[in-house]
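Thread: Modeling a multi-component assembly for a lab meeting

Hi all, long-time lurker, first post. My supervisor asked me to bring a structural picture of a complex we are working on to next week's group meeting, and I have zero experience with this. I have the sequence lines for every component (424 residues in total). Could someone generate the structure of the whole assembly? Inputs are pasted exactly as I received them:
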Amino acid sequence: MLKKASIILLIAGLGFISCSKDPVSDLSTEESLVYVTNFNKSANFKQYKTFSIVDSVLVVENDRSGTALTEIDRSLLQRIITNMEGLGYKYVSPKSNPDVGINAAWITNTYLNVASLPLSSYYGGYWGGGFGGYGYGYPSYYQYYETSESYWLVSMLDFKNPNKADSTVNVIWNAQIRGSGIGSPQHIDKMVDSVFGQSGYLKNN
Amino acid sequence: MNKTALIAFFFAAALPAFAQDAPKIYTLPSPFDRYTHYLATARFTGAAPLGSFSDQYISKSSFQNFSASLEWVLRNSPFSVGGEVGSTYFKERLPRALYVNGEETISAVQTRTVSQYPIEVFGNYHFLGKASNIQPYVQLSGGISILDYVVYYGSLSNQDQKIAPKYGIGIGSKFLFKKDGSFGVDVRVKYNGTSYKHDYIENGISSLDGSVGIFYRWW
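Re: Modeling a multi-component assembly
Sure thing. I ran the full set together rather than chain by chain. Output:
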C-alpha cells in the first residue's frame, strides 16, 4: 500500500514539474521591444556639431554581410536624421567632414546549442519541452536546438578625433533594438525615438 | 517444533487475552488511534510575498501554487512525519521603465518570475486525538527547492537556476467530513523561506502562504 502511494506522489510531483510556462507570451509587439544604449563616458558630446549617416543599412548574418535599403531601412535612417537634428546636430553630406558618422546595421546571429537532458529535465518545457532524441541518431540524453536572434544596431562614430596611430575611429554611442517586433515597419519611428529619447546626454544645443 | 504446533502454541497464548477483550469490542478506539496510518493531502495555495523579496522583486500575490504530501501518523503519539512536493510560481509585470547601469541604459517592459519546485520533509504536532473531527496542528518543514529565476526584458530573458535550501513553519487544522471517516479538509497557514541570493533577490525568498487541501487517510 505504502509503495503504491509513494509512486502516485512521485507521479504527481513530476506532473507539477513538467508544467511549462511562457510568462511573456501575452506581451504586445510594442511591449516586447527592448532598447539598450551605451555611450563612451570620455566623450563630450557638446563638441560635435555636424553628422552624416550611411546611405543603406548593413546587414550582417553570422559571418556574411551586405547592404540593403528596403522600405523599413529607409524609415529607420530617415528617423535617425530627424532625431539627430532634433538634438541640435546639423546633417551634412559624408564628403564635408562630419564630426560624427552614424552606422545602422541589422544583425542576425544563429547558434546551434546542445542541452543535456539530465541537467535540464526539471525545467522541461523551456526549449519546447519533451524528450527529443528519438529518431535523430544522437544520444537520447542530448537535445539539440537552434536559436536565432536579430537586432538593430545603430552606432555613432567619432570622426572628429580619429586615432591616427592605428587608423581607427571610436564608437561614442550605440543603440541596440531587440525584441520580437523589430521587423514591423509601423513601430520603427517609435523604436528610433526611444533610443534617442533615453540618451539625453547626446543633446547638443 | 513443526509449524502446526507453533500456530497452536500462539493461539493458546493469544486467545485467552483476546477473550478478555471481547466484551468491549464496540467501545474499541478508532483504527486511526490504534494503528500508525497514512494520510495523503493535495493542496492549493495562495501566497503573499514578504520582506525584501516583496520590496525588491515581486510584491504580487500568487495563486498558482500546488502541492501534494504523504504523511505517516504515528500510533500513540501526537506526531506525524511526512514528505511534500509542490510547485510555486510568482510573476509580476512592470510597465516600461529605464534601467541604468553605468553607461548602459535599458528600456524595457520587465516581467519578473520565480518558479520553485520544493521537496520537503515535515513533522506535525497535533493538539487533539486522531478520533477528533477537528485536528489542529503545528508544522515544521525543511528541504530543498529547485529554483528557476527568470527576469524578462521584453522577450529577452536573464535566467538563473539553482537548488536552494528551504524551510517553513506553519499552523493548520484538519477537518474530517465525518467522525472516524477517511476524507477531510486541511487548512494551513505557513511561512515559507528559501535561502537564495541573485540579482534582485538579496535576502532570500519568503512568503506567507494560505492553503486549502483535501486529504484521505487509510491504514
